[in-house]
Amino acid sequence: MGNLNAEKDLTFEQKVVLDAIYRIDNLEAKRKMSKIKFEKLLFLLGKMHRSELEEINNTFEPYAMGPYSEYIEDDILGPMKDLGLIRDYKEITPQGREVAEQILQHDEALKKIDESLKILINILLPLKDNDILYLVYNLYPDYAERSQVRDMAKSENFETFRIDLKKINEKPGNIFEITSDKGNKLKVKIENGIIEINEKEEDQ
User: CA 15, CA 7: separation in Å to the nearest integer?
Assistant: First the structure.
């Protein structure tokens, strides 16, 4: 590691990604962290912290398997491998672990993002890659335009309901029906600025 000064020699984005790999490497089930999950973890983290992670957020582009960032590969992971901090996207070196722990102790901005990281990792790790692609494509459909798997990114665990925003401005107390991409139906009632969603009763 030489005379690496974590505060000066690493960019904030590199610190965040190092922290992500540190968190992943601590997990017993880290083998479940596929490259797709890792990419989408950082993509969603960038969306959650747009101002702090502007460079990460702005470098994701539509790709064959969903949003992808060459910047993360070339300017973050590559240099950290060269510095001996990581072996790959889910394995940190002893030197990298020492640096990650040092940074977490002193960087208040990173501590805030670390909390979001832990939440996202816990959510994404148990999911299949298809589930994650399904969620990302439905939350951010613009990133599906170059996808080679968009039509195959189906999920057994999730379904999408969409609400027409025009209906929100209609008569208070209005009740309307929404249908998911799997054909299931819900009743939506909007009154006093509150959206109430209930399962649709079966026709008698």
Answer: 9
pLDDT in tens, 103-116: 999 999 999 999 99
Instruction: Encode pLDDT of 32-80 as tens digits.
Output: 899 999 999 999 999 999 999 999 999 999 988 889 999 999 999 999 9
Which H, E and C letters describe the chain, residue by residue? CCCCCHHHHCCHHHHHHHHHHHHHHCCCCHHHCCHHHHHHHHHHHHHHCCCCCHHHHHHCECCCCCCECHHHHHHHHHHHHHCCCEEECCEECHHHHHHHHHHHHHCHHHHHHHHHHHHHHHHHCCCCHHHHHHHHHHHCHHHHCCCCCHHHCCCCCCCCCCCCHHHHCCCCCCEEEEECCCCCEEEEEEECCEEEEEECCCCC
**What is the separation of C-alpha 80 from the centre of its chain, rounded to a whole number of angstroms?**
21
Q: One-letter amino acid identity for 173?
A: G
Global pTM value: 0.76
